[in-house]
User: Fold this.
Amino acid sequence: MAFLTIDHLSFTYTTPQAATLQDVQLNFQRGTLNLLTGASGSGKSTLLKIMAGLYPKHAGQLLSGQILVHGQPATLPDASLVALMFQNPDNQFVMDTVYEELIFTLENLQIDPAEFDDKVTAALDFVGISALRNRHLATLSGGEKQKVALAIIVAMDSQVILLDEPFASIDPQARTDILAKLMLLKSEQHKTIIIADHDLSDYQGRIDQLLYDDQQTRQVKVANEAQQTALFRPFLRKIKSSDYPLPATGRESAVVNLDHVTIKQFAREILNQPQLDFFANKVTLITGPNGIGKSTLFNALVKLKPCQGTISYAGRDIKRIHQRQYSRDIGLVFQNADRQFVAVTVKEELEASQKHSLLPQIYTPGKVAALFAQLGLEGLEERIVYSLSEGQKKRLQVLLMLIMGTPVLLLDEPFKGLDLESMQHLIDLLQQTAAEQQRTIILISHQLQGLTKFVDYHLTFEQQHLQYVGVAQ
Amino acid sequence: MNPSFKFIVAIILALEISFTNNYWVNLILILGSLLYIVRQKVPLRKIVWLFIVPLLPAVGLTVSMILKADQNFAFVFNLFTRLYAFIFIGSAATLTTEIYDLILSLQQNLHLPTKFAYGFLAAFNLFPKVKHEVQVIKTASMMRGITLRLWSPQLYFKAILSAFSWSENLAEAMVSHGFTEDQTRTYARTIPLTRRDWLLSGGILLSIQLLLVGTPYIINF
Assistant:
């Protein structure tokens, strides 16, 4: 008999007709590493949070089914049975130091205080972060925070360890370290580990079961041999450097220049760039591993993150440009769409953007309505923006920022959570705008399908360095 | 002294001097608080600030009372010293107590429900993030052509939205770290509540009552 069973589970956030999970049936054995993949915004997080006992307590409604341990219904949440590591390294700690957070957890589990010190020491040693013992959590990097989260799970000694996109915003080295520790927890302590991850690199040959989210049937299914090969394939192929041309030296004009720029996240250096130009009226794609610092680079470009050295826009040091002026020069499409909204309904958002647009002659109400329809958003005018689906929010957000008409637009993962069709609509709109209005677009994206015609130049971000790749013209 | 008792005594004393008019008591409280602060090894820099910060409002109050209300010296001096007494009593409680100790004491000695105690503590630890969040909200709005000021309702609307998502994340994280409301828990550290705490608190309050009764005072409306 399987150790852990998900038995005919259906779950919805709204109505039974719009169930997120429909009749999910899965089995997990002890001492296995299970990988759960699927598009973001699918049911992966939901399933993990149900297994951790957070849902339906905190959100949604369980329509049917149950979680079984050795065939018996489990009472959840039960921290000694199931532990969950979250996607966001922030907001998962109550106390202010690593030691106190571990103690808080042990106190919750009603462990004898006499054992506290040994347990804390053992957990920190296991993860290899004894040096962080008395550090303030607020001073740790994302990767260190996730290691602390893992140490807490080790101290809790839970049978099942769930990880919800745990590597989404941490550096590659931390990811490798944590994965190695998880392999040990599996083999030495026979933990059942389930990781939700959209990035499948490094997993092949290490996992016991690959599960995927089938959005058609709203089920989570076990991938067969052929499906596994197909799912892993995109992560084996690196982008060929010949996909894009290299910028021709001397022929392009720079709109943004980096001169001996160093960006640090706490003690860790993220970028150390002697020289770099972003070219005017071009579309530049930035790729690089998770957590390398791509979003932080964008924050530095819009003056939300201090850095050393000089970043200049149109020849002027951005430190000398007033923020209010500067935000009319460079716009950032945030990864989290909610950040971009300033009003309540979709209509009010569109009006706000039109009112303050730098290109009112182009973005007339008629034009805006046409673009709105082109993105498949028709009929949503009266909706409250925060109630839209993630995909709808994303499309609206990009449109709002295009209307603003800033000469430079930074887009941080604009295709996240979009299906291929919506993504194509958005690329068409961006391409059309860039061509007609001579705008500079700098883009971070993991999603590379369909970008070939749109992107002019390709920058890779690796080992604290940005570099153009491609064929010489 | 037990952290909870310290705060209770401080609140009672502050309330009492709000309704009485006796600068001798104010001066004794200032001196007593100062001695306690010094004994608890609070850095000198912070102690100096305690004298400077209330100076401007205290002087302002005194001058306006003399000029406009035409009050006698005793009354004006009482207001002046009362302001300082508030600051010193408050500081004697806050500067000498770790927030974590207070939270532990409120749970263990006064039986405050754990969900309030840790909810409060988590919120307290989130505080430094608020500043950065406000900056992001302001910049994001500027990119939409809207300048938010400290008095713009939109700023607060966005900040509250962020707070909602933080609190949701935190609540879930607490549960996944084994926290359950109203469940008994073990403690790495117990905050003692001794006979000495009772005697000391009682003694302080009693002697202040005697001083208030012993020296003439007027109820001030």
